Amino acid sequence: MTTSSTAPSVSSVAAYAAPAANAPLEKISVPRRPVGEHDVLIEIKYAGICHSDIHQVRDGWGEGIYPMVPGHEIAGVVTETGPGVSKYAVGDRVGVGCFVDSCRECEACLAGQEQHCAKGMTGTYNALDKNGEPTYGGYSTHLVVDENYAVRIPDGLSLDVAAPLLCAGITLYSPLNHWKAGPGKKVAILGLGGLGHMGVKIAHALGAEVTVLSQTLSKKEDGLKLGADHFYATSDPKTFEELAGSFDLIVSTVSAPLDMDAYLALLKVGGAFVNVGAPEEPNSLNMFSLIGGNKTLAGSMIGGIAETQEMLDFCARHGLGAEIELIAADRINEAYERVLASDVRYRFVIDAATI
């Protein structure tokens, strides 16, 4: 496979970056490495805004690397390939998720669990690559990535609604797949936001009986349209009485501390409560809430490259894309405030043509 002669390599690209912790994002230029032997150059078409972008921009998960170009929900088109590339050709529709490299040698990497690389995966942004250079994410016009860390976006998915699947989609698909959500299983999705709405869609498509647990009933109509069978408000104490011992699986997308004892009581014997939301504050629970009923408290972090491709293919077969609000890049700061106010249904996506 040869390097494209119609789309020369780029050495710097336009991007939106936070110059410092808690600073508004602004337009800058950032470097991109030359296209190497196994690299592809992607012209980014769309980039989703994930709540984790806000956590990292604002140092919520530890000290960040600035200037920081967020974005790990990336959908675009290959415009150049390195001479050793075999997976993709110029014109292919591809996506990049939360990481762009790993050691490729450890037990996790060899098992297709690159996100759990023993030496640490290389994040798509706010990380240092193997050369010690900072990575810059998808709020930009182009990205260079090793072909093995890109995934193919099926033709059945529009790129704008596919972009959020690279984080939100795989974040929910992986635990639902691992804990075998499907016919005969009662699954609750806790929180109906950017993550949760994809959890409802995917759990429904897998054949599970799906319940949404949300703070209020304000999104009930949406939840039922997305595929939920039931919808309950967690602000109502009667919810916890009525649903005690109901669920085989609860997937929590909430990024705030919870009353874990109350939620564990909603599980059946042998049920699992899986966290995919990552609160900045620690949580606590009474261990008897786990011991009684042989219950499992677990976490799940995105998915490996192979499972991400599996998720995209599944979503294409079932016609599942994210519910999005498309914005221009100059509205990113406004979008951040709206995400924090839960004022989006259900994922902001940046049109990279406006960067």
From TrEMBL:
Keywords: Metal-binding, Oxidoreductase, Zinc. Pfam families: ADH_N (PF08240), ADH_zinc_N (PF00107). It comes from the Bacteria. It catalyses: a primary alcohol + NADP(+) = an aldehyde + NADPH + H(+). Its EC number is 1.1.1.2. GO terms for molecular function: alcohol dehydrogenase (NADP+) activity; zinc ion binding. Residues 23-350 form the Enoyl reductase (ER) domain. CDD domains: CAD1. Its cofactor is Zn(2+). Belongs to the zinc-containing alcohol dehydrogenase family. This is alcohol dehydrogenase (NADP(+)). It comes from Streptomyces agglomeratus.
